[in-house]
Amino acid sequence: MNTFLAVIIGALTVYLAYTLYARRIDRHVIQSDPKRATPATLFMDGVDFMPTNRNILFGYHFKSIAAAGPIIGAIVAANLWGWLPAIIWLVLGVSFIGWASDYSGIVISVRNEGNSLSAIAHRLVSPRARTILFVFIFFYLLLVAGAFVGIMATVLESQPRVHLGVIMLTVMGLLLGQMLYRWRTGLVGATLLTVGLTFLAILSGPWTEEIFKGLNAAFNSTTGGAPIVTYFDPTLANFKGAEAKMMPSVLIWAIGVALFCYAGSVLPIWRMAQPVVYVGFWVTAAAMVLGLAGALVAPFAKPEVAQFVIPAFKGWNPQLGPAGIMPLWPMLFVTIACGAISGWHALFGAVGTARQIENEADMLPVGGGSMFCEFLLGLLALLAVSVGAKGAPVGAFATGLGGFISVWGVPLQYATSLAFAAFIVIVLVVTQLLFRVMRVTLSEWLGEAIPPMRNQHVASLVSIALAILLMLTGTWVYLWQLFGGANQLMAALSLVLVTVWLASAGKNWLYAGLPAIFMYVTTIASILVTAYNLYFNVYQVNLAAGRVIPVVGSGLMVLVALLLVAAAAIIGIDGWRAFRRYRRQPISAPRPAAARA
Amino acid sequence: MLESWRLTRVVGRLASLRGSVSQFLYGMMGYEFARHAVEMRHEMEAVFMVVTLGDLIGVPVLPPVYSLRLLPYVVPEIEAWKRHMARRKEFWEKEEYDLHAV
Predict the structure, then answer these.
(1) A458-469 burial, b for 16+ CB within 10 Å, e for fewer?
(2) DSSP string across A195-229
(3) Rg, C-alpha atoms of chain B
(4) In chain A, which residues have their Cβ closer than 8 Å to the Cβ of B21?
(5) Nearest-by-Cβ selection for A274 from B36, B84, B102
(6) Is A591 domain-assigned?
(7) How close A419 gets to chain B, by Cα (Å)?
(8) Chain A residue closest to B78 (CA)?
(9) Residue A472 DSSP class
(10) Which domain holds residue A131?
């Protein structure tokens, strides 16, 4: 297998799934009608409801859903089960489930006056469905934030070549916000300056490596070379598990990441979060576009970087630690989330994008099209890790992506630096946004009962402290899989909601209902497997060794897992009751199309 | 003649493709800033509307004579403003939930 064939498979998947399946559903089931008025045109207020050109909305929606998810999932899955199961799930997942979830999130909102999924769930399923969504969102964010902070601190500690780029990214983000919103500088000029300097810093990374290595050594000398936390890591020693030591430098970088996220959480969005995301987007986009194009031509231009080096299939149930189980079903289906299907996309599509849809004929290209592009991003990450050298998953990914970029004449050392920086940047900018959302969710959820939670600083610090506690357990793989489970459950619940809505409208519900059942059963099973692994592989091992922090962290994760399962069970029961009710008696016939000029 | 017609069609399609790509890129890069600028302006305008047309929601702030003088400038915005004020909002419609990428 080489990268050219894989890219061709990806392109064929997109073409066939879009033209043969997605379009049929759009025409015959949803019956999108270009003459029907959309909420954007009916309720236009110039802000939330605003008819927007389809191409602009496509770019906006794609950028809003594409981030670290498809990259990390593919990296982990390829290392656990091999590249073949990963590519099969990516292809089948996006073709039959992923696009349907993203597209339907937009459709259901457009056909329900631009209401969010929670408001529709409140009306169609049950009032408590809306409340339960709170629980999902907060724990979903907590899990992904813990996993991201852990990954970033480890990579920052082990890769001093990316530090200068990350520092420059922060400074340039702040400068860009000032230039755009205060000095009223044009976007093109401000972009050239800030993005150009950030790229320069990233490419200069290898020259400053020794300085930051010295800094890490200085941090570690504060404890005389002794670790801060010792924990049992089931991913070490070729997945047999071994004792791991967290050195002071890792904690210092984790605190650095936390400070960055704190600033992003409490400052006005225009001041830091938004411009940093923008500058970071350029870095990632450059690496991804060069990488994908490089993967396509690499078998002809530079064959040594295009051959898959990891096994196609590593087994149905690879060992992970002494007592861990990692069965391909259901674990693969939550490990690779965003490149195949993601609940967050539907949530965002319903609140953000749906209110800007100008014409019902735009729903499929915007919602489905963006998901197919996200699939290509996941495929690129899978290719990069499949051709990368053996070793740590993130390192293999960066080496692989650097190899693709080097096809264009960039020296391998600099290309790998760019790949590492792209990975760190995309995870970092997303994490600051995650803490921002956690802060608001926490204050809305607990603000009534615990008034200090309404304070943005308190809510931010509590969120960050919880994430760092989870990080100190050192089990980012389980954190990632729990996050994947929560994310896929949210996708399953959005598909359940779409199924109920289709039944209530007297339409054929199978295209959403069958994926909903599959994702619902699979993700609940995966969360239970992860809880089992956490208990027997992490909690008990660390308890026996008398390590407090990993015990508290893993115990908390087991509780979160059980809470998610309970919440999903309640929504599942309510959804099933609503479905049966509407199957007996649909509540609304399809509305006649409103006349449009 | 036929060749010229074909060439024109190809050039037209290329121009259309270029337009679509530039719109896509704008959607990925500039649209977010434009939206945020509109949201910031909207918040200021909402305050302005409350001040000038506070009577509508039972909070007269300015003497009616000034409101009347400002009326021609705000009339085009009244309908959208009323819709925006009256619409029930979910808390996750706040800008913090505009995740930009996850």
Answers:
(1) bbbbbbbebbbb
(2) HHHHHHHHHTHHHHHHHHHHHHHHHHHTTTT--SE
(3) 23
(4) 55
(5) B36
(6) no
(7) 19
(8) A45
(9) T
(10) 3-584
ipTM of the complex: 0.77
Tell me which chain A residue has its CA closest to the CA of residue B96: A437
Q: Is A43's Cβ below 8 Å from some Cβ in B?
A: yes
- Using one digit for the tens of pLDDT, what is the confidence trace for A356-394? 999 999 999 999 999 999 999 899 999 998 987 666 677
pLDDT at B1 over 70: no
- Burial annotation A311-329 (CB, 10 A radius, 16+ → b, else e): eeebeeebebbebbbbebe
Query: For residues A15, A20, A26 and A27, what is the CA-based torsion angle, rounded to 10 degrees?
Result: 130
- CA distances A253 to A189, A216, A236, Å, are 33, 9, 21
* A147-156 CB burial, b ≥16 within 10 A, e <16: bbbbbbbbbb
Domain presence at residue A36: yes
And the tokens for A431? 């994490």
Interface test with B, best of A41, A47, A112 (most B CBs within 10 A): A47
Integer Cα distance of A48 and A114 in angstroms = 10
Task: Give the tens place of pLDDT for each residue, A325-357.
Answer: 889 999 999 999 888 998 888 877 887 789 899
CB contact under 8 A, B28 and A60: yes
Query: Which stretches of chain B sit within 8 Å of chain A by CB?
Result: 19-21, 23-33, 36-40, 42, 80-81, 83-84, 87-88, 90-102
3-state secondary structure of A593: coil
Q: Is residue B17 helix, strand or coil?
A: helix
The dihedrals phi and psi of A451, each to the nearest 5 degrees, come to -50, -35
Interface touch B27/A277, C-beta < 8 Å:
no
A105 backbone dihedrals φ, ψ, rounded to 5°: -60, -40
How close does chain B come to A430, measured CA to CA in Å? 6
On whether residue A595 sits in a domain, the answer given is no
| DSSP classification of residue A244 | E
- The nearest CA of chain A is from the CA of B32 a distance in Å of 7
Average pLDDT of the residues in A530-548: 86
Q: Return the amino acid letter for A279.
A: V
Q: A144 Cβ partners below 8 Å, 6+ apart?
A: A434, A479, A480, A483, A487, B102
Residues in chain A with CB shorter than 8 Å from the CB of B92 are 116, 118, 137, 351, 440-441
Q: How far apart are CA A386 and CA A503, in angstroms?
A: 43
Q: Give CA–CA dist A424/A257, Å, rounded.
A: 11
How many domains, in total, are found in chain A? Answer: 1
The confidence score (pLDDT) of residue B102 equals 39
Q: Which residue has the tokens 């504060």?
A: A222
Phi, psi at residue A232, to the nearest 5°?
-95, 120
| Nearest-5° Cα angle at A476, A348 to A231 | 155
Both tokens of B29, joined, read 């890069």
d(CA A106, CA A96): 17
| Angle made by CA atoms A372, A328, A325, in degrees to the nearest 5 | 140
